[in-house]
Backbone:
């Protein structure tokens, strides 16, 4: 039974990939590009050591973002605010780390804590609005995203948080080497796998453990399945909402760190600001399961990175963005169909069992 | 004492003008109520308002539309693509159609397949961003005057209306600087000064929506799909059909909003919508899921945007702070007189802080105006949620024959 469920849960992602490849191929034929040329170019570059390193690095970022979204999803909370939470977390972390000259472990601990606290605090605003004022977190987090972006541009352009780090580029003070987590070049001799990659694996395991092996995780999943049943069994829904939102925000606060501490060393206004939306997509692909999310993040990162040299084939690299959008679409649709079929077969089974009972009685 | 709706509206307008007038006098900043400001504010309000209106259509039929941003993006692209080849009007049509396709996609995913509406909307935003970036490179790179991220210039334009016979005397009256009278004249003159035909069309669409949704049988049925689709279904209303129509119309309107953006700047650019779909969503909430309030919200947000962008001598944002302070204090007075003490005290404190800021600082960063719409929306949501009434089954999945 368990195996069967596992296999059916694979149908949707596979279908998504197949459909998106088919549609992409159709588009490529339509624009008179070579289908095999494009796909083999992606495969060839995407499996080179350098690209593999870049994929791992990007997937690290995506994984954290998706995890932040997923823990909310588990409780039917829709944290669209990962964007705002992580940019604020990254700026705060960058500003603090830039001014630290401490031994690496201490410096890193402080930096990570700052990012998590700031991310959690920003998510906390949405949590407070939801719990005490009944404001939907979907809307409040969208608004908070825009406010966060404005706060950051204010802080960097107009306050001493920002300094001129390069010609005409303002950003947080460059983090000294003692505060960085650059990682090691174990795949490609010239490119390093972010140090945060290993931290992230640990976070993924912790996430799995907390959700599946602790009382808190049980409460959380129970509330997500049925809020009323959870309430009856003594779980305080409001408290769970607040805690979940804070954890989601704390995880979101980390999203910018792999890149900040592994490469950028300073948060400037060119820092990507839409990894949160990618996280939503990947959490959907991975069905909020850490292993599924890891695969989703790797797939997403592969598409992003491997498209890097498509321009040599005369095809815009954005073709992979379309692929990503299609994958999400097909996957969520097929999950829904699978879910409905499961309910139907369950109902049929129960009906049959009841009929048999009625006959024997 | 019963106050009719009209009396209430007129007194709100009067108080509003008085607040603008007081601020204009204190800050001696004529820009606050000048014809140019108002005319431009209306221009900025159009895309936001259309997005908000699009939101009303969809959510009134019970479908939450987070995909507005994506549908607007499709609209900007359609307008750029058709606009540079066949002129502004063709661009407008293409933008509307492209947006409508986005709406149809949301309908297929959320109504037919029962995918969570917020998830489907998010997916549309992703898809629209990718698709337009891809097509822009493909279609505009080699076109004369185009680039990888922008279309060639859109040819032709949508006419604007200026009635000098009315606008000129009003502008002259505004320049006299009389309390209240000059400001009223300034606000009115904006309506007769470089008024885009699209602004007129948008206003008509608002009126048409209010009539269709609240005064016709069609509207009643459509709204019933958003309030209680199961009951509507049991009475023979074709809920699925109505939802499809509503969401597609929502896409058409969002597409029009996007098309307006491209045509107004005579070019399509990647990222042109800059989150206006989401601001539209905010105006819809601000307007309590109704056209009147949504239109007012759009004009307010457009006004704030204009003052931020035409702020040549750094005075406008300070003016906005005072306007905000006066509005907040007024609300505080109302709340303190009614039973809502604690909220009233909160507003009074906020008003005091704003007045203090106004007195202490002589100029403010533009970011303050940038966040004003979002903070306003959050404030409205946090304090007026008892008075807000979204459609009862907004966001609820509906399957024919299932009960809830």
Residues:
């Amino acid at each position: 039974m368990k195996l069967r469920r596992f296999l059916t849960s694979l149908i949707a992602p596979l279908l998504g990939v197949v459909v998106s490849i088919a549609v992409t191929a159709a588009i490529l034929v339509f624009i008179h590009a070579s289908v095999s040329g494009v796909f083999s170019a992606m495969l060839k570059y995407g499996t080179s050591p350098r690209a593999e390193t870049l994929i791992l690095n990007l997937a690290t970022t995506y994984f954290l973002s998706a995890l932040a979204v997923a823990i909310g999803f588990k409780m039917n909370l829709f944290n669209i605010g990962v964007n705002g939470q992580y940019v604020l977390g990254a700026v705060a972390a960058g500003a603090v780390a830039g001014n630290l000259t401490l031994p690496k472990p201490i410096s890193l601990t402080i930096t990570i804590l700052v990012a998590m606290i700031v991310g959690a605090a920003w998510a906390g605003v949405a949590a407070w609005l939801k719990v005490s004022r009944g404001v939907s977190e979907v809307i409040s987090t969208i608004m908070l995203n825009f406010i966060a972006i404005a706060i950051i541009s204010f802080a960097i352009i107009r306050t001493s948080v920002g300094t001129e780090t390069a010609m005409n580029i303002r950003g947080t003070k460059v983090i000294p080497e003692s505060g960085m987590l650059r990682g090691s070049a174990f795949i490609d001799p010239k490119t390093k796998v972010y140090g945060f990659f290993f931290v992230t694996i640990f976070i993924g395991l912790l996430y799995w453990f907390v959700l599946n092996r602790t009382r808190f995780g049980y409460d959380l999943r129970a509330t997500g399945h049925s809020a009323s049943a959870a309430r009856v069994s003594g779980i305080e829904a409001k408290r769970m909402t607040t805690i979940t939102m804070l954890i989601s925000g704390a995880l979101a606060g980390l999203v910018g760190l792999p890149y900040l501490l592994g490469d950028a060393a300073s948060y400037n206004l060119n820092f990507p600001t839409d990894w949160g939306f990618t996280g939503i997509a990947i959490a959907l692909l991975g069905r909020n399961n850490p292993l599924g999310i890891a695969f989703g993040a790797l797939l997403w990162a592969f598409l992003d990175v491997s498209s890097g040299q498509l321009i040599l084939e005369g095809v815009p690299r954005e073709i992979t963005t379309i692929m990503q959008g299609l994958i999400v679409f097909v996957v969520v649709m097929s999950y829904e169909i699978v879910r409905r079929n499961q309910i139907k077969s369950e109902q049929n089974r129960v009906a049959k069992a009841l009929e048999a009972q009625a006959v024997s009685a | 004492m019963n106050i009719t709706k009209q009396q209430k509206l007129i007194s709100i307008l009067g108080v509003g003008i008085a607040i603008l007038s007081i601020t204009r006098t204190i800050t001696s900043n004529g820009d606050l109520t000048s014809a140019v400001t108002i005319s431009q504010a209306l221009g900025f309000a159009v895309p936001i308002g259309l997005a908000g209106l699009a939101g009303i259509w969809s959510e009134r039929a019970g479908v939450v539309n987070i995909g507005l941003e994506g549908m607007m993006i499709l609209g900007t692209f359609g307008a750029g693509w058709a606009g540079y080849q066949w002129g502004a009007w063709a661009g407008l049509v293409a933008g509307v159609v492209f947006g409508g396709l986005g709406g149809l996609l949301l309908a297929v995913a959320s109504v037919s397949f029962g995918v969570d509406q917020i998830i489907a909307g998010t997916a549309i935003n992703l898809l629209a961003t990718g698709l337009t970036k891809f097509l822009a490179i493909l279609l505009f790179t080699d076109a004369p005057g185009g680039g990888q991220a922008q279309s060639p210039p859109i040819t032709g334009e949508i006419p604007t209306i200026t009635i000098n016979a009315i606008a000129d005397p009003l502008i002259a009256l505004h320049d006299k600087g009389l309390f209240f009278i000059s400001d009223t004249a300034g606000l009115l003159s904006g309506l007769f000064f470089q008024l885009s035909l699209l602004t007129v069309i948008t206003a008509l669409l608002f009126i048409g929506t209010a009539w269709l949704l609240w005064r016709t049988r069609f509207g009643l049925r459509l709204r019933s799909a958003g309030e209680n689709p199961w009951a509507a279904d049991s009475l023979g209303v074709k809920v699925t059909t109505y939802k499809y129509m509503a969401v597609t119309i929502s896409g058409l309107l969002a597409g029009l909003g996007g098309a307006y953006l491209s045509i107004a700047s005579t070019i399509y650019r990647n990222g042109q919508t800059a989150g206006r779909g989401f601001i539209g969503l905010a105006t819809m909430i601000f307007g309590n899921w109704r056209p009147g309030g949504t239109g007012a919200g759009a004009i307010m947000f457009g006004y704030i945007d204009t003052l931020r962008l035409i702020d040549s001598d750094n005075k406008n944002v300070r003016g906005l702070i005072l306007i905000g302070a006066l509005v907040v204090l007024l609300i505080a007075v109302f709340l303190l007189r009614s039973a809502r003490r604690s909220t009233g005290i909160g507003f009074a404190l906020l008003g005091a802080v704003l007045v203090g800021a106004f007195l202490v600082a002589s100029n403010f960063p533009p970011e303050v105006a940038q966040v004003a719409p979002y903070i306003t929306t959050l404030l409205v949501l946090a304090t007026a949620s008892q008075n807000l009434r979204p459609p009862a089954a907004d966001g609820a999945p509906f399957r024919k024959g299932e009960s809830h």
